[in-house]
Amino acid sequence: MAPDELVKDSRIQNDAVATGTAGNPEYAVQLKGIVKRFPGVLANDGIDLDIKRGEIHCLLGENGAGKTTLMRILYGLYSQDEGKIFLNGTPVNISSPREALAQHIGMVHQHFRLVPTLSVEENIILGLDEGTGPFLNLRRVRAKIRKIAKTYGLSVDPGAKVWQLSVGQRQRVEIIKALYREADILIMDEPTSVLTPQEVDQLFTTLRTLVTDGLTIILITHKLDEVMRVSDRVTVLRKGKVVNTLETSRVDKPSLARSMVGRDVVFRLEKSPIERGEEILEVEELGAEDDRGLPAISEVTFDVYGGEILGVAGVSGNGQRELEESLTGLRRATSGKICLNKKDITNLSARAIADAGVAHVPAQRISMGIVPNMSIRENLILKQYRHPPFAKGLRIDYKAAGRHAQSAVQDYQIAAPSVDTRAKLLSGGNIQRLILARELSGSPYLIVAAHPTYGLDVGATEQIRQVLLNQRESGAGILLISEDLGEIMTLSDRIMVMFAGEVMGIIPSEDARLGEIGLMMAGTRHEKD
Amino acid sequence: MKRIERLALLKVEKRPVPSGHVILSVSILAILAALVVVAIFFASYGTSPFRAYGAIIKGAFGSWQGFSETLRRMIPLLLCGVGLTVAFRALFWNIGADGQLLFGAIAATWVALFSGLHGPVVIPMMFLAGFAAGALWGVIPAVLKVKMRINDVITTLMMNYIAMYIVLYLIHGPWKGPSVRGYPLTDIFSPAAQLPTIGNTHVHWPTLLLGLFLALAAYIMLNRSKSGFEIQVVGENPHAARFAGISELKTTVTAMLTSGGLAGLAGVGEVAGVHLRLFDPNQISMGYGYTAIIVAWLARKNPLAVIVTSFFFGVLMAGGDVIKVNLGLPFQLINMFNGVIMFFLIGSEIFMRYRITLRRK
Amino acid sequence: MGWESWLISTFARALAYGTPLLLGTLGEIYAERAGVLNLGIEGMMIMGAYSAFVVSYKTGHPWLGILVAAMVGGVFSLIHAFASITLKANQVVSGLALTMLGLGLAGVLGRSMVGTPLFTSLHRITVPGLSTIPIIGPGFFTHQNLLVYITMLLVLILWYILFHTRVGITIRAVGESPETADSLGVNVARVRYLCVVVGGIFAGVAGAYLSVGYRPAWTEGMTGGMGWIVIALTIFAFWNPIYGLLGSYFFASLYHLSYRLQAWISPELLKAMPYVFAIIILILVSRGTVQKRRGAPAALTIPYTRGEE
Questions:
Q1: Is A127 in contact with C170 (Cβ distance < 8 A)?
Q2: Three-state DSSP state, A2
Q3: SS3 state at B229
Q4: Would you call A43 helix, strand, or coil by DSSP?
Q5: Ramachandran assignment for A484, one of left (phi > 0), alpha (psi -120 to 50 degrees), beta (any other)
Q6: Which of A231, A377, B12, B285, CA to CA, is 20 to 30 A from C277?
Q7: Which tens digit of pLDDT belongs to each residue from B176-190?
Q8: C5: alpha, beta or left, given left = phi > 0 and alpha = psi -120 to 50?
Q9: Cα–Cα distance, A227 to A221 (Å, whole number)
Q10: Closest by alpha carbon to B158, among B94, B220, B203?
Q11: How confident is the model at residue A2 (pLDDT cuts 50, 70, 90)?
């Protein structure tokens, strides 16, 4: 950031302070000196934030920068330890979502707050009292939903159950829910992470319309592109503090990235061009069902070679999870064939597949990848405990496990007080390092990595990508499932796009264009030349 | 760790990991609080709580006879309690130790009266058969849970009732002793099928030693063996178990074989060491299987700590007998006692998981 | 005996024996729909049975007894609510503790009255008109007590509330996704407390039905494990009051029919039948619950803490 901007920035803040405790009625929202402590963490450290009426204001920062915490305070889900909140210049006390809603603040959470077993309309009126007592006037509710849907292009069937909806539709329900409650201020937490590029366009159009109609939108994101595309102003947070607040038209991406991370961001990833090796994985017409017993993937055919990263792109919920699980023995394949090194491993047990040399970095990192209440030492032998040197007859040699853990902690730079620290006390990045350390310890032939850097900070992301690239160089085949298109494009040698459980096409990454991949993600099949 | 909640004027923060002395002091305080509540009940019943507790302590420790009653009660609680720690570690809610105990008793009775065995093999065979029968009764709900997702609490409970009625059927029907003149009892066991006791008490010391040994064995199994590791992983995170290729079925069945088997051994001890015959199931099980739940819970699922907690509840049960006789208070008081202690125990866990301070504002 | 009288007695027994099961199940459905498993039904039922008995024995008014039993059940359930909602204690253990406490307390308090018959029990009524219908009349509308019909009416009311009112939406949301309900200003703890107390009230009345209606007397442990069968029926009913009615009556008629086997099976084993049936029924429905999204409320047994994900 240029020095003159810094000066201007601080002057704005000084002005705000000068107006005194009454706040400035110019601003829709003013947060002053917000401090929020969690045990062992200072999540918000004296944050000042001014949001103008009718703007789209981005809160930019890495994971753990305190963006979501700050907005949860504004929405009444957390209460601040220190600091004040002003709405339109008036001090307010928001200690629960009920009070936030009464102040016309709405929030669309990153993990949607919807009840899957209820219908859309039931979700929308949940918690409301519309003067009809306990009884429902569904006709009136539907009319109001339709009106909102029509005005902002948010089409959705009010009677459908939420579990039947796609992720994009669910997001629309969330927005309608806020508008139904006549929100003036709409907070959106990472709204684009689950959308196709085209759906993102559509969302941004809707947001623009909303702002034209007088709403104020606060958008939490860690993606620089989105800031540049949609926001009027941007506030960068780092480690619980405001770095600066700027007009978007006066910044560029590199400077934003620098203030977000606190140093120059140069991706030092070196992806050397290497000869691809033997065919390691061959998947033929694979089919599998989801948890409800409905077909989730069908006729999935592809192969992975040694020294190659095959990226799997697609909007979440298009069969990636079922693919990941049927390859690793966690889900039964209903049709087709999976061969590892020319040997049929279809529907072998998870144990047999792991022992055959398939490493698995699971999407559900915490709920599946670790046992939170067990120590690092124990988590590192979660799969290897049954083999020497850890198994000695019926006994487990915990001393050997300890030595193994010591070296893994060093090799993968897992930050922890000791190897007997419980895994649940580790940060997300360290948990992922632990999982990689365990999964890669047996020099696997194939690595199935699902969303390996999702939600991690830049440092951990960089390290984990480098580890994957190193594995590629040492000849492993890697299947990389990710929703982060940037990640797929940077790391992959070839890109496979999935939609509705089918493969839309596989293209070499040097030919890949974002627009084309976006179309494939939305269901257009790639024409083979 | 972003976890926080407000509770009235208190500030409640998640404690990362409670230390050993926090667990111990909170547990002791919980028991003291429960004793106070029951004291109030004594008082409202017209009995001085000091007199009642005095009678319990005197009853349990005052004489060798009293102390032997404590030990006698401790034996089944120890065996069932150790078994339950294994089941609970695998996150299997075995509420069925009572039924498993009865099945052990049935099997032991069969060996003693109907197998035709004689001499020194009888006792070991009774223990083996009792273990197998208890294990069988415990494995059924384990398979139902893993294979068909049927709630373990309900099945184990239902099977307690079924076991009870099977015992009733046996003693009213096919196993009714020819020498008991129509009473619903079996014949008394032959001396070869009776466990030796200390002096003329009911302390059948072989079962007590077996229990102490198995507590140690269970501790080693849970904390040092591959099976123990698998049980721990399945109990803490079944998804991770699946991910790691640990069979939930095999692990749960192992845990319930152990848990049911140990309860079965307790049943063997009761019929072969105390009653010397099969009769009224309620008098054989005495609710040991239910009390053992508290025993295991209070021991924080640590089999070695069960030695201490089962002794404590042995004192309460023996003392309960004494106040029944001496003060004319109903024995059901002990059930109530158990309920109150359990509430305070689980209620107090919030003090282990959370650090609670007054809020400054 | 002809098939007609056979049917009639089956219907009549199904109603008589099924009603306490149904009352308990209705209450448990509400508690579980809000996300709280209450294994203390047996304890609350026996406390209800005892208090209804004592009150109607002392006052001569069975309905007053039922009212007091409802209150006792409600108050008793508050212990579980406090432990599991406010203190976030393990719901399985807390419910078991409640049952132990109830069985113990009722045993202690009622010791001096064991075996006392009650002469001021609920009147049995025969519905005029309806009782003259062949088979149905004598089966359903003859010589039953009023509570049987009140319970049927309650089924409809509770079903309507659960699926067609704002209250029902709120309850189901709290049991499925408390964080969603909380984010829309619903007081999760309050809803859960209310539902647990409703469950306690119903369990209390179920117990009262036993001691002042079904078998007017006080005997120790007179609920005899009904509370556990209620837990199984709640699953069998897919947490729906209507299915709860069908399940309870179906179960009760099975129980009654098993007595037809008396010639072949000893009475002790017959008494074990309800528990065998309960397990068999759970086996039968286990497929349906997994596949058809009719499983337990997603947040069942999980305490809610704001901000934990």
A1: yes
A2: coil
A3: helix
A4: strand
A5: beta
A6: B285
A7: 988 888 889 999 999
A8: alpha
A9: 8
A10: B94
A11: very low
Q: Which tokens sit at A358?
A: 């398939």
Q: Determine contact: C305 vs chain B, CB below 8 A.
A: yes
Q: How far apart are CA A251 and CA A245, in angstroms?
A: 10
Closest CA to A313 of A529, A518, A511: A518
- Strand (E) or helix (H) holding A72: helix A67-74
Residues of C in contact with A123 (CB under 8 A): 173, 180
Q: A310 and A452 in contact (C-beta within 8 Å)? A: no
Interface residue of B219, B229, B357 to substitute, partner A, most A CBs within 10 Å: B229
What tokens does B329 get? 């208070």
Q: Spell out the alpha helix ranges (H) of B200-302.
A: 205-224, 226-236, 238-243, 248-269, 281-285, 288-298
Can you give the pLDDT at residue A216?
96
Bridging pattern class, strands A185-189 and A216-221: parallel
In terms of pLDDT, which residue wins out, B211 or C269? Answer: B211
Amino acid identity at A397: D
Q: How far is B91 from chain C (nearest CA, A)?
A: 12
Residue C303 CB contacts under 8 Å (≥ 6 apart), including other chains:
C84, C85, C88, C89, C91
Chain B residue nearest residue A363, CA to CA: B243
In this structure, of A94-98, A455-459, B82-86, the range with the lowest mean pLDDT score is A455-459
CA dist B99 → B75, B105, C224 (Å): 17, 10, 15
Q: What is the pTM of this model?
A: 0.88
Q: What is the pLDDT of residues B118-157, one digit of tens each?
A: 889 999 999 999 999 999 999 999 999 999 888 899 899 9
Nearest CB among C161, C165, C184 relative to A126 is that of C184
Averaged pLDDT, A463-489: 91
- Write down the pLDDT at residue C261: 78
Q: Residue for token digits 């006392």?
A: C116
Give A132→chain C minimum CA distance, Å. Answer: 9
Q: Which of C279, C281, C294 should be substituted to probe chain B, the one whose Cβ sees the most B Cβ atoms within 10 Å?
A: C279
In angstroms, the CA C17 to CA C14 distance is 5
Q: What is the ipTM of this complex?
A: 0.87
Choose among B152, B159, B109: nearest CA to B253.
B152
Q: Please tell me the predicted confidence (pLDDT) of residue B357.
A: 65
- How far is the alpha carbon of C160 from chain A, nearest alpha carbon, in Å? 10
**Both structure tokens of A264:** 């120059």
Q: Give the span between the Cα atoms of C219 and C106, in whole angstroms.
A: 10
Interface test with C, best of B94, B171, B343 (most C CBs within 10 A): B343
Tell me the per-residue pLDDT of A228-270, one tens digit each, with 9 for 90 and over.
999 999 999 998 999 999 999 999 888 888 888 887 766 566 7
CB-CB neighbors (< 8 A) of A96 in chain C: 185
Distances (CA, A) of C159 to A292, A334, C154: 26, 39, 8
- Chain C's closest residue to B174, CA to CA, is C266
pLDDT of residue A272: 78
B chain contacts of residue A455, beta-carbon cutoff 8 Å: none
For chain A, the average pLDDT equals: 88
Instruction: Using an 8 Å CB-CB cutoff, list chain C residues near B172.
Output: 266, 268
Rounded to an integer, what distance in angstroms lies between the CA atom of residue C148 and that of residue C245? 11
- Determine the average pLDDT of the residues in B218-238: 95
Helix (H, G, I), strand (E, B) or coil at A186: strand
Question: How distant is the Cα of A361 from the closest Cα of chain B, in angstroms?
Answer: 10
CB atoms A41 and B1 under 8 Å: yes
Partners for B (CB, 8 Å, 3+ pairs)? A, C
Q: Which of C98, C148, C105, C111 is closest to C252 using CA atoms? A: C148
Please say if the pLDDT value at position B209 is more than 80.
Answer: yes
Q: Which H or E run includes C283?
A: helix C267-291
Q: Which residues in B lie closer than 8 A to residue C231 (C-beta atoms)?
A: 151, 153-154
